């Protein structure tokens, strides 16, 4: 899953195929093009979370919530490098 992170308002929105998604302040937008590359505005960065690992965390929490105060399941976020093979930041 890829998420748009606005550097201005710190909003995070889920990106969609060929459909521009905007942050709350309207400074940033992004979408997937037909090849799956993320196109996004210069005021943003793209966050990537493994769907498989996130699914494991979600299902694990539902199956075994653990005792009160337990740390819970976690996963990491990868920040896409600017203008990588997975994403193109406009205005750069
Ligand atoms: Zn914003």
Can you give keywords for this protein?
29% strand; alpha+beta; binds zinc ion; 4-stranded antiparallel β-sheet
Compounds present?
zinc ion
Structural class determined from secondary elements: alpha+beta
Report the biggest beta sheet as strand number plus sense, adding barrel if it closes: 4 strands, antiparallel
How far is the N terminus from the C terminus?
A: 24 Å
**Kindly state the mean pLDDT as a whole number?**
94
* Overall tally of structural domains: 1
The DSSP helix count reads: 1
Q: SSE order in H/E notation?
A: EEEEEEHEE
C-alpha Rg (nearest Å) = 15 Å
How many E strands? 8
Describe the model.
With 92 residues, this protein is of the alpha+beta class. The chain has one domain (2-90). It has one helix at 51-63, and strands at 2-6, 12-14, 21-22, 29-32, 38-40, 44-48, 78-79, 87-89. Strands 2-1-6-7 form a 4-stranded antiparallel β-sheet, with no helix packed on it. A 4-stranded mixed β-sheet has the order 3-4-5-8, with no helix packed on it. It binds zinc ion.
In short:
The chain is α+β, with helices and mostly antiparallel strands and 92 residues long.
